[in-house]
Amino acid sequence: LNSSFIALQSAPLKRAGDPLPRHAYSSRVLAGQNTPPILRATAINPGKQLMLLTATDEDSRPSPSAEAAPLWAVANISVASAGQLQKARGDVVVPYQGPDIQDEYIHRIFFRVYEQPSRVPRQDLGNYGQLRRWMSRHALVGQGARNGGKMSELLMTAVRKRPGSTVTVASVAANPEFAGLISTGHRGHRPSQCKERRRKWQEFVFLDRR
């Protein structure tokens, strides 16, 4: 599985709820597998020395208002490792672990790479909460990171088990509605609404089901 992040200094990054560009999609990540996908960061801004990588399952939140638990978090990655992020050496805050999916729905796994303004100090590397607070202080969380061009993201989909039939993932060209559906968050929605919305994602993602 080969995947690339969209260019960090490319056209303005999409805001929450906007359709992601076609090249931001990959095929899928299977739940329960603890080998990270092959990832590359491309076209990094000149002068940047360090990157930070995170992965989260946006559909495994304990509540709609809760933060998504991290599947992976590595700080202080040298830009020299941008071509092989899955093998990059850095300060591992959360070792990679495959999604722990407990339902039959498609889950959205977001891999995000950030340009670090400076090295993350040791006292902020103890756990993910400490790392997030450091990121927040440096405008690497939420719209600040998106609007400032400091972050780029790659969306993958994960399933609990390998389907028994041939599975292909819908592209934006094949289904124009797919991007809008899958990139829309579910904060504030009732569980029943979330469930119905994710049924729709499944209909768009699995084109060949038996």
Automatic annotation (TrEMBL):
Source organism superkingdom: Eukaryota
InterPro entries noted in UniProt: PEBP-like_sf
Name of the featured protein: Uncharacterized protein
